[in-house]
Each structure stands twice: as structure tokens, then as C-alpha cells.
Amino acid sequence: MVNIHKNAHIVYNVISHMSTLVAASSVVRAILVAGITFAVAVVAITVAVSVVARHCIGVVLIYQTGALTEVDTF
């Protein structure tokens, strides 16, 4: 009889803590999603900046070689 009561008490504890665990896991999930979103944004910005920088460097090099004049850009 004591064993059954003990098991019931353990089950009750697990069930009562489930809501806390679910709340904690949703917070962890939100943090992970925010972190992943931030990481993706950083990668996208880095790629965009490198593409623009590469383009600008290319234009500067073309200007320096004289292959492109200011008239050609318009």
C-alpha cells in the first residue's frame, strides 16, 4: 500500500512539473529561434556587404585603368 502511494506521489510530481517544463522549453525554443534568426541575418548582411564591396572595388579598379570614364556611367 505504501508503494502504491509513493508511485502515485511521483506521478503527481511529474505531472505538476510538466507545465513548468513545457513553459521552460517554449522559452528555450524562443531563444533558439531568435538566435538562429539573428545568425541568418548576420550571414545575409555579411554576404550583401561583401557583394557591394566587391562591386565597388571592381568599379574603382575599372576607373583606375581608364577603361571606364565618368561619361560611361550615365
From TrEMBL:
What sections of the protein cross the membrane? 27-53
Species: Octopus vulgaris (Common octopus)
Tell me which UniProt keywords the record has, alphabetically: Membrane, Transmembrane, Transmembrane helix
Protein's recorded name: Transmembrane protein
